[in-house]
Amino acid sequence: MVDTRFFFFLLPAASCAFQTGGGSSVLSRPGTSSTQLSAADDDIASRRSFVAATTSAAILPIFTATAAANAEDSQMYSPKFVQQYDDFTPTEEGWSYKDVKIGKDGGVSAQDGDRVVFDWSGYTIGYFGRPFEAKGGPQGGAFDKELDYFRTVLGSKTMVTGLECALRGMKVGGIRQVIVPYGPLSYPPEDKEHDAVGPKPTTFSGMRALNFVLENPRVDRTLLFNVKLIRVDKSDGKGGFIRG
After folding, report:
1. What is the largest CA-CA distance in the chain?
2. What whole-number distance in Å separates Cα of residue 210 and Cα of residue 223?
3. CB under 8 Å to 201, separation ≥6 — which residues?
4. Is the alpha carbon torsion for 133, 139, 145, 151 positive or negative?
């Protein structure tokens, strides 16, 4: 930002001359005629005009460049900066999904209050698609192995909101890809270690990749989650759950 106060020192003061009875601006000096002072005034006025013109010419490109930079910044935060994924189904809440595999016919659907057990992987899809939790993708790979799966109770607000919404209605065996935009549906900015709201990356490199994107307002912070629902445990009404 240009500090315009600096340029004020280049401009002549408006009160540098005394006013005579005739109204002309002259500076009374012994031995100087009115004609000489008038010529001197014309020369001073000419110099003032030159300084003002050159100063304006110097300031204009600076302000023009600043305005252009501000316009560029505003475009980076506009919706056009965020990529669109037409092959995903958008929801009213703001997250989008694609069902890779539908769960078992006649199976139990996950609802609020249920404890869900699922496997997952995550990618910074809006920023080079870098994995922050990679397990071979939603088809085959690590999804077919015995793992320490992620567990949460739907409605407990201990998981990314967009992902929690996506798990509702899924059936065991179902695989869903979920796109979560940055904001209320994603990881909360105050929980940098992701202890309060998961799922939390299991590696240091995954945490670093995720936080680099979440803390950088100049990149698309949209995330992609691949989830496979392993099990749905219903409440037993006594504070526990019946294994599904």
Report:
1. 113
2. 9
3. 122, 132, 133, 194, 207, 209, 210
4. positive
Other beta carbons within 10 Å of 117: 18
One digit per residue, the tens of pLDDT, for the chain of length 244 reads 444 443 333 444 443 433 434 444 434 444 545 555 455 555 555 656 654 555 454 444 444 444 444 444 434 333 455 677 889 999 999 999 999 999 887 778 999 999 999 999 999 998 889 999 987 544 444 444 445 789 999 999 999 999 999 999 999 999 999 999 999 999 999 999 999 999 999 999 999 999 999 999 999 999 999 999 999 999 988 888 888 8
The residues that bridge with 41 in the sheet, in sequence order, are none
Report CA Rg, the chain: 34
Q: Which run of H or E residues covers position 117?
A: strand 115-124
- What values do phi and psi take at 45, rounded to 5? -60, -40
Q: Which residues are 238's β-sheet partners? A: none
pTM: 0.63
- Please measure the distance between the N-terminal and C-terminal CA atoms of the chain and give it in whole angstroms: 62
Question: For residue 30, what are the CA distances in angstroms to 19, 24, 33, 37, 186?
Answer: 17, 17, 9, 11, 81
Cα distances (Å, whole numbers) of residue 151 to 41, 148, 174, 177: 86, 9, 16, 18
Structure-block tokens of residue 122: 């995550």
